[in-house]
Amino acid sequence: MFPSAITDFWLTPSPTSRLLHDDDVFSVTVDAALDEDERLTILTTTDGKTRVLLAPAVAEAVGLESGQPVDEAGFRQQLEKSGIPLHGADNLFYFTDEDRETLLGEPDAPPIRPLTEADADVFGQFEEAASEQDLDDASVELDHWAVYGAFEDGRLVCVASMYPWNDAPLADLGVLTLPPYRGKGHARRLVRAISRHALAREHEPQYRCQLDNHASVAAAASAGLTRFGTWDIVSPDADA
């Protein structure tokens, strides 16, 4: 259903990993090679299976190395008892194999084009018209790996940007439409255009958003993306 680049990245064990527990709905894997900011991650795919990946120090902190039986509810209780907070899960959306082929056969709409350093002034005007919260949530940047803009009456009204993610053939994207121009399909067309750019460069587009960001979830669906699952990581403020 999903391209192998996506399933391989998320589901194939690392050579440095060690499986602690695995059943039909829950698994725990320890990996000493994890980066500090991803020393604990929790992936729950749409088939209902939750996969925990953690560093040895975190496994020890929550008592997993002692070998006692574990399930997801018990694991989360141990996290809470150990004072290890989570950041808050993101939805993960990708194009399926079928939708990917449809996407590649479409042309870009005329009001959409790549943005470059020469667009610094119009991009600055776009930023001034957006709220700080929207800019922070979308994380669109003019110096990202790829940046596309949608224009209306000569004004930049929607921006999407992306960057290669975690040394994988994935391109993480964000999109932001100025409030007066929402509901007109700009984000949908822009996401599809920048996704074609990524696919042409052998990167699978990745769309992430918080679980309670219903507008962003709707935008992903409108753009033709399919939910792969949810992904959570340890909070940056965690001590363990």
Would you spell out the secondary-structure blueprint of this structure?
Layout (H helix, E strand, L loop, with lengths): L3 H8 L5 E6 L3 E6 L8 E6 L4 E5 L1 H6 L10 H10 L8 E5 L2 H8 L7 E3 L5 H10 L2 H7 L7 E7 L2 E10 L5 E8 L8 H15 L3 E7 L3 H9 L3 E8 L7
Parallel strand pairs: 2-4, 9-10
Antiparallel strand pairs: 1-2, 3-4, 3-11, 5-10, 5-11, 6-7, 7-8, 8-9
List the defining traits of the structure above.
single chain, alpha+beta, 11-stranded mixed sheet, 11 strands, 30% helix, 30% strand
* Count of alpha/pi helices: 8
Structural class: alpha+beta
The geometry reads as elongated
Please, what is the average pLDDT? 93
Brief sketch in words of this structure:
Helices cover 30% and strands 30% of the residues. By secondary structure, the chain is an alpha+beta fold.
Description:
Residues 110-240 form the N-acetyltransferase domain. It comes from Streptomyces decoyicus. This is GNAT family N-acetyltransferase. The structure is a single chain. The chain has an eleven-stranded mixed sheet with strand order 1-2-4-3-11-5-10-9-8-7-6, with helices on both faces. Helix 7 links the parallel strand 9 (170-177) and strand 10. The protein contains eight helices and eleven strands. It has helices at 4-11, 56-61, 72-81, 97-104, 120-129, 132-138, 186-200, 214-222; strands at 17-22, 26-31, 40-45, 50-54, 90-94, 112-114, 146-152, 155-164, 170-177, 204-210, 226-233. The chain starts with a helix and ends in a 7-residue tail after the last strand. 30% of the residues lie in helices and 30% in strands. It is elongated. The protein is an alpha+beta fold and 240 residues long.
